[in-house]
Specification:
Blueprint (H helix, E strand, L loop, with lengths): L1 H10 L4 E5 L18 E5 L13 E4 L6 H6 L1 H21 L3 E7 L26 H21 L3 E6 L2 E2 L10 H11 L3 E4 L5 E3 L1 E2 H12 L7 E3 L4 E3 H12 L5 E4 L14 H7 L7 H19 L1
Parallel strand pairs: 1-2, 3-4, 4-5, 5-10, 6-9, 7-12
Antiparallel strand pairs: 8-11
Bound molecules: nicotinamide-adenine-dinucleotide.
Length: 301
């Protein structure tokens, strides 16, 4: 998502310094920007204090984001949500810059309220395997609000719901990349549990448009940005088969621990405050992603 954010900021005429330690990211996603004079990349771990020089805006997007990545890098995930968030907030404080935290729908855990409004405090297992991510993001939200309240840092918090599109890693373990990869390889699509659990999927250009609108707003409390159209995993699998034209079958496997059963944003706040709503429906988003996934699957073989 960071590379798409860089694209949007550059298209808006801004100058961008992008810091990433490449723990889960890939330079391939930034290669198209390396000759751009208003873009600079530094390979850096944001958990170490650093001074980028004067900036107007700090976007803290660094964090392993897919379950495969944050389960593999649990300690790094806790560090980037805590020390990393504090370092980025310190930069914003030093330069009186605005700050935006990329938070997540995982703050709601396995929700007891559906759909999830920003006012819902969540249902998170604090000691389960996913807690490294959920609690790191909840800490990062708390730190963001504390810097706002204590130092008047001009902060924003976006709670991002499942986002997909070109540049997703094939092996990130999230359902869209799994299904697209398996469908394009002619392998069975892996469905966990009975496949009736739901997710809502936001195409990346919609997500970035919502984040840019929030970045320009004056709202300090969290705002959900996602697509409220909800699909079961079985419906999702069928759509992927339709869009790819694949004949793959479905293979059912046990549900991972603490896997949320339902996830759907209530986006009334974003609609009212930002006059934003997603424009790309799921089928169209999958079609727009197809060429990228075809290329990624071809070069992985
Ligand atoms: N994609 C989604 O559906 C989704 C949903 C909710 C929240 N988010 C949040 O959005 C942000 C971006 O997610 P993404 O999907 O693009 O994931 P991603 O893994 O593609 O990008 C995260 C980037 O952070 C970098 N990173 C990790 N630790 C770092 C550190 N200590 N210092 C510097 N860089 C570091 C990684 O190398 C990677 O490039 C994350 O904060 C994630 O939690 C994403």
């Amino acid at each position: 998502m960071g590379s798409h954010l860089c694209d949007a900021l550059l298209a808006g005429g801004h100058t961008v310094l992008c810091a990433d330690n490449l723990l889960t990211g890939r330079m391939a996603n930034l290669e198209h920007l390396l000759d751009e004079s208003r873009f600079e990349f530094v390979e850096r771990d944001v958990c170490q204090p650093f001074d980028p020089g004067e900036v107007d805006y700090v976007f803290h997007f660094a964090s392993p984001a897919s379950p495969v990545d944050y389960l593999r890098h649990g300690i790094e995930t806790l560090q980037v949500g805590s020390a990393g968030a504090i370092n980025c907030l310190e930069i914003a404080k030093k330069y009186s810059a605005k700050f935006l935290l990329a938070s997540t729908s995982e703050c709601y855990g396995d929700p007891l309220e559906h759909p999830q409004k920003e006012s819902y405090w969540g249902h998170v297992n604090p000691v389960g395997p996913r807690s490294v991510y959920d609690e790191a993001k909840r800490f990062a939200e708390a730190a963001t609000m504390a810097y706002h309240r204590t130092y008047q840092v001009d902060t924003r918090i976006v709670r991002i719901f499942n986002t997909y599109g070109p540049r997703l890693k094939l092996d990130d373990g999230r359902v869209i990349s799994n299904f697209m990869k398996q469908a394009l390889r002619g392998e069975p699509l892996t469905v966990y549990g009975d496949g009736l659990q739901t997710r809502s999927f936001c195409y990346v250009s919609d997500e970035i448009a919502g984040i840019m609108a929030l970045a320009q707003s004056d709202e300090h409390l969290p705002v959900n940005i996602g697509n409220p159209s909800e699909f079961t995993m079985l419906e999702c699998a069928q759509l992927v088969l339709d869009v790819t034209g694949s004949q793959s079958e479905l293979r059912f496997e046990a549900l991972p621990q603490d896997d949320p059963k339902q996830r759907r944003p209530d986006i009334a706040k974003a609609r009212e405050l930002l006059e934003w709503e997603p424009k790309i429906d799921f089928r169209t988003g999958l079609q727009l992603s197809l060429e990228y996934f075809r290329g990624a699957v071809a070069s992985s073989q």
